[in-house]
Structures are given as C-alpha cells and as structure tokens.
Fold each of these.
Amino acid sequence: MRDAQPRSIRLADYRPPMFLIPRTALHFELYEDFTLVHATLGLVRNPASDERGPLRLAGEGLELRELLIDGEAPVASRWRCDAEGLELDDPPEAFELCTTVRIDPRANTALEGLYLSRGMFCTQCEAEGFRRISYFLDRPDVMSVYSVTIDADRRRYPVLLSNGNRTSQRALDDGRHRVVWEDPFPKPSYLFALVAGDLACIEDRFRTRGGRDVALRIYVEEKDLAKGDHAMASLKHAMRWDEERYGREYDLDVFNIVAVDDFNMGAMENKGLNIFNTSCVLACPATTTDAGFQRVEAIVAHEYFHNWSGNRVTCRDWFQLSLKEGFTVFRDAEFSADLGSRDLKRIEDATLLRTAQFAEDAGPLAHPVRPDSYIEINNFYTLTVYEKGAEVVRMLHTLLGEEGFRAGSDLYFERHDGQAVTCDDFIAAMADANDTDLGTFKRWYGQAGTPELTVEDAWDKDSGAYTLTVRQQTPATPGQPGKAPLVIPLALGLLGDAGNLRLTLEGETPDGEQADNTHRVLVLEEPEQSFTFTGLPERPVPALLRGFSAPVRLSYPYRREQLRTLMTRDDDGFVRWDAGQQLMVAALGDVQAARAAGTTPALDPLLAEACAALLDPATPDPAVAAAMLALPGESTLVELAAHAGGADIDAIHDAREWLRAALGEALEDVLVRCVRRHPPAAAYAPVGEQIGPRSLRNTCLGYLATRGDTGLVLARAQLAEADNLTDRLAALRVLAQAGDATERETALEGFYAAWQHEALVVNHWLQLQATLDLPDAVERVTALMEHPAFDLGNPNKVRSLVGAFAGANLVHFHRADGAGYGLLGGVVEALNARNPQIAARLLTPLTKWRTVPVRVEAMRAELSRLAALPALSPDVYEVVSKSLESQEPQPVG
Ligand code: B3K
Ligand code: ZN
C-alpha cells in the first residue's frame, strides 16, 4: 500500500533508462523462514540518456543487509532507501553494485516476487515483481545477462531451477546443495524465474529444424505425474508449428515448465522456465474437460511462442504490452485453428470479444490497445490489450495476406532481436516489408471504443448493380470524446439463390477464371463509403463480416428469412453461426415483447425448424451443430441490450429460459434421438472426432433438462457411467439445476466425496454451484466460502467460486436487495491487502453499473463503500475510482 492517492504513469513521460545493466549475478540462499538475495550488478551509464542526478533502483518489501559500490560501503549521506527503492547520489559512469537483501517468501500472499506455494518456492515477476526480490532497474528496457546461484536444503528442495542452462551442481555442508544457471540471452527482469521444490518431472526431447537437441521437462508434484503428457505433446506441436509458420526455432538446450497451485493468472513465459498455473498445464480425462484440454494446448503454445514474440524481442515499456500479448494471442489462435477447427476457434474468439471486450470498451475502464496511462500496470492485462490487440494483428494479416504478413514478421524479428521495442516498430516492420503505409491503420493502437458499422444496400434490377453503403463511427470513451475513422477490413460474400455469387466491383473486369472470387475484403477508411458490385443476376443477401474480419459491431436490417438463408447456405462458417445467433436474438426479443405486453410468447417456427435441421443426422459436423444450437449467453445478451440503452437482466434471463424450455418441448423427440445417436465413446480421448459428438449430446441434454424426467433419467445414467469430466459435469449440472433438492444435494455431495482429493475437479464443483440458478444462490456461495474446499489464498478457488458467481450468474449477482454486490465487495475487501491483483480483477462485474439502469445506485453504493476503505491497494483504488469517476452514461450509437 503506497500513498493515499497513487499516481498515474504516463506514456508521454517515457525516458530511456539512465543506466544499463549488461550483467547480473544473483545468489539465493533459501530457508524456510527467510531468504537472502545477494545481487551483483554491473551498471554502466546509458549513452542514450542525458538524465543526470541520483540513480533510483526499484525495491519493495526488501530489508537491506549490505550495500557495496565497487567493493566499498558508500558514505551514509550519499545514498538512501525508502519503501519504493534505493537512491544513489552521483553514481560513477560504470560500477559494480552489490546488495544483500532479506525477504520473506512465506509471508508473500500477493504471489508477486518470490513466494511459497504448497511448500515450493516460485516466482512471478511480470510486470513489476522483480523489485520484491532485489534492488534493480525493474523496467523491460533494461536487459541483462543473468547468472543465478541457488542454495537450498537438498532433501526438501531437490529441484532448483532458473532460466537458461544449468552449468553446475554440487553438495554443500549441512545437507544443502547449490545449483548454478546461466542464461546467455539478455532479458528484462520480468522474465527472471526461480523454482525450488520437491518435484517430479516428465521428460522428452525435441530436435529443432536447425539440429539443436532440446531437453523438454515438465515439473509437477509426484501425484500429478500422469497429468503432464498432454502439455508435453502440445509443447512439441507448438515448437514445430512455430518453425513452420514463422521460421522461429528454440534457442536453449532445455525448456522447462513448472506447475504451481497458487498462481495469479494462467501461466508465465519466463525465459526457458515457464511457470504454469496447475489448471493450465495438468490434464487427464478424469480431471479435465474437453475445453480444458484445448485450453492447456493453447496456453502451452502461447507461452512457448513468447520465446520470440516477447522474450527475444520484448517491450520497451508496459504501455507496449500488446506488442507481445496481442501478437502472441494471434499466434496461438492460428495455432489452435490449424490444429483443430478454424471455424469453432473463430466463433469462440468472436464471442469473447463481443461479450467481454466490447463491454470493457464501453465501460468506465475503456482504454486503447496501447493505453496512455495507468496507475497499476497489473490492471492492464485486459481483454483489450490481449484480445482486441490480437484482432488488430489479425487485421494486418488480412490486409497484407499470409505472405506479406510473414515477410513483416521476419523483418520484425531480424531487425529487433535482443531489443526492447514499441508497437510502432512492429507496424514499421510490417509496412517496410510490404512497401506500404500503415500510418492510418495505427490508429487502432491509440483509439479506445468499439467501432460501429452501419450497412445499407440498394439493388438496381435493370443494371444488375448492387451497392453497399457502409458508415463507421466509434463512440466516445472516457478521456477520448472524438474519434477518427479507422482502417477496417470488411470481408464479405453475396449469397444468391444458387449459392455464393461471383463478385466484380464497378470498374473491374469480371474475372471468370479466378476460382475464389466469391469472397472479398473491402477496406474501409472513411466515415462513409459505397461499393457497387456489378453483373449480379439477382438481389443477393449480403454475408457481412465474414470470419469476424474486424472487432466491430455491425448492423444491417436482416429479415429473418435472410438470416435463415445465411445460416444454411453461406460459405463462411462464422457467418452461418452468426446468422443463427441473430435469429435466436430476434426470437428472444419476441418473448420479451410478449412478456412486457402481458401476452403468451410463441416460439418462432423458423427458429424451431432451423434447430431441428441442426439436429438432423445429415448435419455434417456435430461440433458446429452444438455451437449453433447454443443460445447466446446471458452476458452476450446483456451486452447487446446495454448497447441499445440498458439491460433488464431479469427479463433477459426469463426470456432465455423460456426459449430454452420452448425449444426443449418442441424438439424433445429429436433431442432424445440425437443424444442416443451420440453415445459416449468406448474410451475417452480429447480428440475432435469425440469432442464434437460429446458437445452436441451435452447441448441436447441442456435443452432436455427442461423436460422433467426425460432429462433427469438421461443425466442420472450419464453421471453413473461417464469415464470423463466433461460428461460428468454436464450430467451433474442437469441434476443440480433441474432435480429436486434431494437429488441436487445427493448428486453434489456424491461428486465431492468422489473427487475431493483432486483440487482441479473441486474447482469445477465450486464453479458449477456458483452458477446454479437457484433462489438461494447468494447464500450457497456464501456458505461455500466456509467449506473446507475453499481457500481465499488460492486464486483458482476464488475465481471458481466468487469470480464465476459475479461474472456468470447474472440474475443472482444482480439480486434486487444488493446481496450479490455485498458478497463480492466483501471478498474484494478481504483480498485488498492480501492479494491486490486478484482483488482488483474480481471487481470487473461491479464496474459495469452503467449497463444495468435499475441497479445503478446499489452498485455504485458498493463501489463507494470500497472507495472509502482505508489503505486501499493501488490496484483496487484504480478500478474503484475510475469506475466511480464518470457519472453520466456514455453516448450510445
Ligand atoms: N505474460 C503473462 C501475464 C503476466 C501477468 C502479470 N500480471 C502471461 C501471458 O500473457 O503469457
Ligand atoms: Zn502472453
């Protein structure tokens, strides 16, 4: 906790570091109740800096034991140290700084810096955790070559790891041992890592394209040894893929991954020593869902890809975070698309964007992909920086094409290897390699808010000309009242009676030869533009924003029959899915309108017929059918309604449940037949051929849960017979949601009794209960916080129970009496000092008060209560104060 009003850091204030640290030697003496860190830094004045005056090194929570400058203790008046660091007067041009500090990893509950998790020492340094380990120039543009010596008790900590290659190992006196690690690649302090523990490992090898033989090791607790294979296979796939798609090879002799139970996020890309949340690396059929297996594969790949996009080429400052995160998310998304289903991956990513990122962009914490200021950088690991940042990179890929994009990325890596650079450098490499100007495109990095495209069309039967007029505008966001037009790739097709039509723009000569001329990317850059297609034999249905070609909202006045046409016949998988979702949104609108008018809703026959068609045995891809049958999530609907002026969460929930039940009733027979057509596989495997049918069966089960015994009987059988977590959880959810109280409690207790020894399964059990739609949902979550399975110190448990409740159980979180807000506020208050990063992140649902007009007062009241607490962490302070700052709803539309 720092000053009462923590200060903002601004991009405009960036100055190069005064000193550089080409070499860093660290020596850790690890003990149970304290740790000594001896650091020897070789400092030299940075020729690129003209700053003079005292040199400040960052340091927090360090107890300074020794300080030497070139081997001598400096005069007391020439240096000082406070809660934020160490200051040296008139430093020599080049000198050696030795410090010894004492730290207390056992007391570190914030999980930043060096801490203990289940008896194992581990670190998390991004973004600014290294300053909790040693005095340092803890900023990413100071890159150093590290040598790390670790001493610890040999029996309790047989495994001692750090970055790079291990160069020596020997026994010391008193049962201790010493290991030395050298990392030849200069790196910023945020990529430093250390692990010490009693760990087992699975081992494999990988030979790089250039012939380097790399030892791959995944370290886990002995009991989890069998759960590392999937991550290992994923790692090898990722290594090969990065060679093939990007020409990037691995550069050390070892690549280590360590699984840690208490971790603030998913994983961390430390050079040569990735540290993973157990939930993102361990996988086996009994403890991991299908989605979980896919998540492990994607995160292992993401962290591996950072070795180039992040580590070899890193960020100059934290404002450039999307330079590594946006690019790496794009890379991992393409990896997942190449290995699995491209359409499904795109649907998933678009859904995340449209619900959570659009909401962020429309809320009080809206910020550009490259923010201009922050109070606490940890609050800026956001969907905007990651996901929208990845969409910006994807748009570049769309505009430049695969070859042009690859040329740009090759140039970027070649030009900046070993450097700390900016988003401008990335764009410059892309532009230079393609001999093009991306100056206007770059606005995407500086402008917050979701652009809105409005499309109108006109058809001239006589000339066969079809004109699309597209308007773009981006709404105001906090601190950014006016917006400039953006460069937006709008991918589209035009659908006629016999399929997708050939496209010729006015002024072009029709290209009869080109096979793929039914697809087109229009490049928008003006507030309003028109495009005329010629030679069309009929009025087409426009298939717009194919592949979700830009992170924008798009509106076109589709008629339902047109949506139905797109849904069945467009060539683009994303458009087919999206049209289905729009049809469902329209049907939900009917239900809400009928309810509001006090009349009985009726099921849209067009939708019922479309869903029945998806359940038909002739539908080729069960995974796609499942995605298309899934109703838009409540968060998606709330976001849509909020954009249109304000959401009535209860009405949305009621309409969605009504539609689910209506479809369940209308399609009961086909749903049951579909369940029977896709029985569980003989032996579970997390492969596409099984995941698709499983997901379709469980989607059907979700609808059948509204059919009383029909659903319950199927769910009971599935729970009894399942050999995997996906099927068990799907069945358990039906029983817990649709069964009577006895059935619910028996099923939940039985599940806990069977799986209480598996922390990751227990997390699912907590999450499932947190998201049940039961009148006492708030009380259930409150009671579970007292359950032996819950632990406020473990971020996974907090996210599974409290995060899932506030983020996904909307009607109950927004309960009229404010109990849901009180629950969340209480947890944030309890975590504020203990783990500020998690506390601040949990607050997200409460920041969206503007979207729920009838709850504004209650939500703001809880935020105000938090704002008034003494000793608010900068993390929580920033979220709370920015959320409360703007009183007026933002202009919409
Ligand atoms: N770079 C880390 C995230 C660090 C978060 C610090 N609060 C994981 C990743 O994006 O790969
Ligand atoms: Zn990342």
Amino acid sequence: MNIIFIAPPAAGKGTQSALLEEHMNYKHLSTGDLLRAEIKKGTEFGTEINNIISKGELVSDEIITKLLKNELTSIKDQKFILDGYPRNLNQAETLNSIFEELDITNYLAIYLTIDEDTAMKRALGRVVCSNCGATYNKYFQEMKPKQEGICDKCQGTLSARSDDNEETFKTRFNTYLDVTSPVLDYYKEKGKLVVVDTANGPENTYTNIEKILKSEDVDN
Ligand code: AMP
C-alpha cells in the first residue's frame, strides 16, 4: 500500500516517513527534500528555489512535477511515501494521471491533523541533521537529540530550516489552509482518505498509521 501524506506544515510527515522507512521498508519521497537538494547544489536554479521557499510560498507546479515524476518513475516498483505532493488540486489531478501512466492503483491518502499552535511550536523547535536529514525537536522531550546540536544517528550537525521561523510558518500554514486542504476532499471523494490525529506525539501517531496499513493489507 503506497502512501500520500497530506498535512499542515510541521505536522510530522517527515518523522512518520522516517519511521515507516525504518520499520516497514518504505521508500520516502519528499518534494521538500528534492528542492532542498537542488538548493544545496548552489546553482542559479537552486537560488531561485531558495527565494521561494524562504518566503513560505509554493514553487511552480511545472518545476515540482518534473522533479517528482523523475523520482517516482525510478522507485515505483517499491512501496513508497509521497511527502509534500500533491499540495494543490492541480497537482492532485496531475498525480492521478502519473499514477495511471505508471499503473499505480494501490495507495492511501493519510491526513495528519494538528492544530496551528502545536504546529508552530513544532516548526520553531525543529532541527534537522545536515548530513543524514534526521529530524529532532528541541521543545518535545521524546524528540530531543541525546546531545544538543548533534545527530544521534550519524553525529552530524543539527540546524533549523530557513523556513521554520514564525513569519514564514504563518504563510506556509495559510497556504496550506487555502490551497492544500481542498486536496483532502479530492481523496475523500475517491474513497482513499484516512485521518490520523498527531496530538499524542510521534510514537502514538506511528502506531495508528501502522494499524491502518496492516488492516488495509489484510483487506486487499
Ligand atoms: P516541506 O519540506 O514539505 O515542508 O516543503 C518545504 C517547501 O518546499 C514548501 O514550503 C514549498 O515552498 C516547497 N514545496 C515542497 N513541496 C511542494 C509542492 N508539491 N509544490 C510546491 N512547492 C512545494
């Protein structure tokens, strides 16, 4: 069962994806990570993307869809998670066509819910490993690294994302409400949507997702 995560910023899509990769052998495809990799290359294209992301705006559908389709084509024979795509109705329709083209029918859209204040706290406390991409959080005991500023997994350096400041977070959250949340109805109408609350922390959220996936696998 492939997964599409739909959620407000900082709901925990990346954290849940990492747990699914570790325990259930999923391949994690994050459009945000693909864009950040372009920025790291230091090209003109990367600089253009950086300007958009640091304002909390969405990059164009053309750019992101091209990046996504290349990656998806190369991993489509594995169980995958889409994290960060689709982010608007146009992308949801494009994804539907890509799935048809690649003959992908087995998927579920998982909506991770979170209230705005908690999401803001998670965003402002989030630190990411510059080496392996693992995510931690300074404000939540169960997500703190063992040693401040150092990745538990690879000893890499932890730092905040440039778009995890208060102002950019608010723009991203509003963009989510205006542009991304209609995608929920799109998948609901297809009978593909399940809702998972993230209020009780990452472990509880993961347990609920795992239960859903296991029952879907039994049903299919
Ligand atoms: P994320 O890592 O998913 O929080 O994404 C970080 C930023 O990358 C977003 O705020 C957008 O600027 C950009 N981005 C990621 N995915 C998409 C997408 N599907 N469409 C447009 N922009 C995206």
